Amino acid sequence: MKKISVRTSDGQEFELEENLAMESATIKTSLDAFSRDDIILLPNVNSWEMVKIIEFFTKVQELETKFGVKFMEKKEGRFLEAFQAEFDKDLSDDNLYCLLWTVDYLGIEVLLENLCHLMAERTKNKTVESCRNLFGVQHDYTPEEEAEIREDYSWAFEGPEIEE
Amino acid sequence: METRSAAAKKKKLFFCKENEHSHNNIDRITELPDAVLHHILFLLPIKTVAQTSVLSKRWRSLWSSFPDLDFTTLNPFPKPCSSSKSHSLNCKESDFITQVLNNRDKHSDIRILRFRARLSFSRLNGLIRLAIRHKVQVLDVEVFTEDYFNFPRCVIASDSLRVFKLKSRRPGFRLPPSSVMTSGFRSLQSLSLSRISLCNQPSLSDMFSESSFLLLKKLSLDTCFGLKHLRVGCRALQDLTLENCFELQGLDVSGSKLERLRIAKCFDGYIEKSWVKIDAPRLGVVLWEHNALSDNICMENLSYLHKASIGMLHEDVSVAKLQSVSNLFSALSLAHCLTLESNCIEILSNNNYFAVYLHQFSNLKYLELHTGFKKNNVPGLASIFRSCPMLHTLILNIINDFKTERRQWNKDLWEMSNSEEEKYWESQTLNLKLFLHHLKIVKILGFLECENEVSLAKFLLKHGKSLEEMILSTGHCKARHCLQRQKIRSQMMGFSWASSNAKITFH
After folding, report:
1. Rounded CA gap, A62 and A87, in Å?
2. Is the CB of residue B311 less than 8 Å from the CB of residue B291?
3. What is the helix (H) or strand (E) element at residue B504, kind and residue range?
4. Which residues of A are less than 8 Å from B59 in CB distance?
5. Is the pLDDT of residue B402 over 90?
6. Can you tell me the mean pLDDT for A98-121?
7. For B71, nearest residue in chain A (alpha carbons)
8. CA B154 remoteness from chain centre
9. Exposure string for B275-304, b = 16+ CB within 10 A, e = fewer
10. What is the ipTM of this complex?
11. What would you report as the CA-atom Rg of chain A, rounded to the nearest whole angstrom?
């Protein structure tokens, strides 16, 4: 299998297998435009993110062999769980955002789907305040404005909120 | 929204060191584009999504442009009680749906709107009109109204609507005349209507014709009061479901693209002349469930048929209707998988007509039978087996409803070398030669070690040359005394089987 070389923002070089590289719409476009022998520069991607992406595809292959399912084609429920269990434990919230951005930039659909699932899981059952801390969102409402929104959407703020 | 390059620069500035992220409240997640954030929000219940509007101004705009509004995740359908408290809750519910739609970003379209509510027709119409204005693509509505209402005509003119589901609880709604229904729905691909009062138009012969609903792929009509005649011929139709139409007298279905057909609990069993005509050569799945029998069933041989299921409403039929049963079986005779419900098997068991006229199911590989498995069913089963020479898997699902006593396998029978039932099966050995030659897997559920099933199991073990596996399971029925079970089992294992590969499992 042909290897594609990429260089991340901090100067590190990685060799990717061609079919893995083609999962990224961005890399694929670059390959179509330039020769496959050139090194592709990815100034928006950090090396640790690249490591994670390669790790993801390795895990996918492991799980595919284990469950005998073509992950790329069908999203099996238990497959998703297995993936989440393995990938989730060593990814901090911050790292998850960065990875989300990078994967979106690289256009890797299947990994993006999974990361969105991970992020959604982390958001469930959190109060607004803890969500704010989780996301690190800048609070740009005045107390009056916020009260107005809460009033308008009172149906959404009803019911028990689970404290984190 | 920031452009990607601006966001990229910002990102590079903040996150250039590996794993070193200071927790100084930089709005990290804001750098993600709207599409990604929406993707995350799609995976959350709508209540949570609405709550995020309070996080910041950007999040508020994310909410007001959020395309999938599924309000059914909010609460279960309100119970149909008439206390004023629940009534006011439901009004409030539809109020906030209106409010959400009104507060939306004017330029953002709605992709999905789904809700269940108890409300008046004017409110329903208002909500739907609002959704149409936002170019809704999927509209899925379940309503509980005070009185019959008229079909909301504003959906007909919509160019964006691809999927429309309208389900009414009591009492129901009326459809406009065909000329109105077929005047629009330009983009509609799936239509599902439930609980329609058709007393003022009992004959729907030109509503779903070849020239109407040109893009419609899926049609489902459920509980149509007063529907007597229906003709469906939409050119693009692939999936048709018709349920709970008890007054139906005539059905005409045609479609060169139709692949799946399900007709359940339909037809008026009491009138003299009812008829069914199906002309859909590409049908792959036909599910005929709990239907009263018509006098005349005309269905061409379906050569693409993969799966079929036949169930009748009544267990006895007049001799006049036997030809219909025969036609039905003949039409489905090329199926690969077949399920026959108990009434069907009763009909086959009670009429010698079928001992001669049952068509060969020459492609059948998988057969599932639901039956009480009483003594009179035995010849019926034998004739079914004789019609499936290529059968690979047989599943016998015995219905133990304890209405009739099934003869237990007791010690008298152990003494005899051959019970009456066993003798009968032995007499069929030559008739069932091909069937016994090909049968590989047998599964009997509801196995209570009664005479019928033990005789059959022994017969299949004795003569099934290709038998690989036999699974005998009591399922959820109460099993017999342990010691007796052991005795029966050892008797079943204690003679030579035709297939040396066969394996028997008891559950």
Report:
1. 13
2. yes
3. strand B503-506
4. 137
5. no
6. 85
7. A156
8. 30
9. bbbbebeebbbbbbbbbbbbbebebeebee
10. 0.83
11. 20
